[in-house]
Design brief:
Elements (H helix, E strand, L loop, with lengths): L2 E6 L13 H10 L2 E6 L7 H10 L3 E5 L13 H8 L4 E10 L9 H17 L3 E6 L2 H10 L5 E3 L6 H9 L3 E4 L9 H9 L5 E3 L21 H12 L3 H16 L2
Parallel strand pairs: 1-2, 2-3, 3-4, 4-5, 5-6, 6-7, 7-8
Helix pairs in contact: 3-4, 4-5, 8-9
Length: 256
């Protein structure tokens, strides 16, 4: 059995909480059958840190992008995203998308324009896009349709079935994090049960959103196991089946 953490931020981990080195983090994950990782970039200032992890560890892949909540630092152009993505270790564009949790929709033109540039880079590079959306589902889907977003994943999904169905209709995958293990996540588990198995991915979004049974502690990519375990329960499948399906889905989407 092999599980892939389709979205984590290994460069943001507090290594002291997991043995003091990336090697120990990866070894710990392997004991729980989590053997490959997509380390996701959230700003250009730390892109080199993300890329260096992928270059050093063959089981780590990387992305390039600027998170919608990032209000400081370099603003990427389409050409710059394409230049940085022109590396075999970079398998995705993002994390990108819209997030109106801390900003007003009416004043978020800069987020929407940034999102459009990432979609253009994804379409032109042929590399899938990693989409973040919070309090912005309508605009997120609207822009994806307007810009003809071709491929990608709705990461750390926490929206309703209507949103999931719309993303699926656009050809996107849906990735679930440790949120599906939370006590108050019954509605999200209902959504997860409706997502076709051939469009599912699992992730930790570590070091954030630690799943049960480690709530309140630092999150590790190793805990993708517990996300897969809950997904198996939701879909009434064995964890081995969910591991195989989500691994194959990852390889299909990211051509890995």
């Amino acid at each position: 059995m092999q599980i892939i953490d389709s979205h984590c931020h290994l460069d943001k981990l507090d290594l002291s909480a997991f043995g003091g080195s990336m090697e120990r983090v990866l070894a710990h994950a392997k004991t729980l059958s989590v053997e490959e990782f997509l380390c996701v970039c959230i700003d250009l200032e730390h892109f080199d840190d993300v890329l260096s992890l992928a270059k050093k560890h063959p089981q780590i892949y990387a992305s390039v992008g600027v998170h919608p909540c990032n209000t400081e630092g370099k603003e990427p152009s389409v050409d710059e995203l394409l230049t940085l993505a022109d590396d075999d270790n970079i398998i995705a564009i993002g994390e990108t998308g819209l997030d109106y949790f801390h900003v007003e929709q009416a004043t978020a033109d800069w987020q929407r324009e940034r999102f459009r540039r990432h979609i253009a880079a994804s379409n032109q590079s042929g590399k899938p896009m990693i989409v973040h959306t919070r309090n912005a589902k309508q605009d997120t889907l609207k822009i994806m349709r307007e810009e003809h977003a071709e491929q990608g994943v709705m990461h750390c999904f926490s929206e309703d079935w209507e949103t999931a169905k719309a993303a699926l209709d656009l050809g996107f995958y849906i990735s679930f994090s440790g949120i599906i293990t939370f006590k108050n996540a019954d509605a999200l588990r209902t959504v997860a049960a409706k997502v076709p198995l051939d469009r599912l991915l699992v992730e930790t979004d570590s070091p954030y959103l630690t799943p049960v049974p480690y709530r309140g502690k630092p999150n590790s990519p190793a805990y993708t196991y517990h996300v897969a375990e809950k997904m198996a329960e939701i879909h009434v499948q064995s964890i081995e089946t969910i591991a195989d399906i989500t691994t194959n889905n990852f390889r299909t989407l990211f051509a890995k």
